[in-house]
């Protein structure tokens, strides 16, 4: 069985500074994908970034980058130059291999990020 | 506009009643999913469907049922057998590795 662990229930960061949100995962599969989603107070889930287990380079999407350390089974999200609008809940998630067109996601418990002015 | 819609946004029901949550997508994706979120927690998979007329149980399927008669639609019924139905329900559709989520339905059962 796969598991995602996010050990930081809440984080604070000053506006314009960088912040790292931790995520560790556990799986015996060799093929998997790692995701980060943002959930504002409105409840919608916003896809941020994806890293495949065979990708050698860390994924980047604008101000978001994923620090993928396969040996440590960690997939930390780095947000550079934090903005007030980044305040939200952040979820790390994992999918295992591929099953036709469906990928079942396993989510962590989330980290509530608050950006301070 | 392309996207995924869920209705209604808020739903209130009395205990013992079945209730159906709507999920529609026009992204032409084959895969669709239902997740449940409890306060302060991550999402848990209820059911998913890879193609029309086929669906699979997720981690917490007990007390729920689904149908997939059309590619665009994947309704979820919360039955009276679900012991703790009050939660936030999110529908998603999959294209490639990414899943696109709907705005969610907050169900309150009293």
Please explain how this structure is put together:
With 117 residues, chain A is mostly beta strands. Chain A has strands at residues 3-5, 10-14, 19-21, 24-26, 32-39, 46-52, 60-61, 64-69, 74-79, 88-96, 105-107, 111-116. In chain A, strands 2, 5, 6, 10, 11 and 12 form a six-stranded mixed β-sheet that branches. A four-stranded antiparallel β-sheet of chain A has the order 3-9-8-7, with no helix packed on it. In chain A, strands 1-4 form a two-stranded antiparallel ribbon. With 110 residues, chain B is mostly beta strands. Helices cover 0% and strands 54% of the residues of chain B. Chain B has no helices and eleven strands. Classes of the chains: A mainly beta (117), B mainly beta (110).
Summarize the structure.
The complex is a heterodimer of chains A (117) and B (110). Chain A contains no helices and 12 strands.
Characteristic terms for this protein:
heterodimer, A: mainly beta, six-stranded mixed sheet, four-stranded antiparallel sheet, 12 strands, B: 110 residues, mainly beta, seven-stranded mixed sheet, 11 strands
Distance between the termini of chain A: 41 Å
Radius of gyration of chain B: 13 Å
Q: How would a textbook summarize the main sheet of chain B?
A: 7 strands, mixed
Shape of chain A: globular
**Form type of chain B:** globular
Q: Which percent range fits the helix content of chain A? A: under 10%
- Multimeric state of these chains? heterodimer
- State the major sheet of chain A: 6 strands, mixed
Structural class designation of chain A: mainly beta
Give the proportion of residues in helices of chain B.
under 10%
What number is the mean pLDDT of chain B?
A: 92
Write down the secondary-structure element order of chain A: EEEEEEEEEEEE
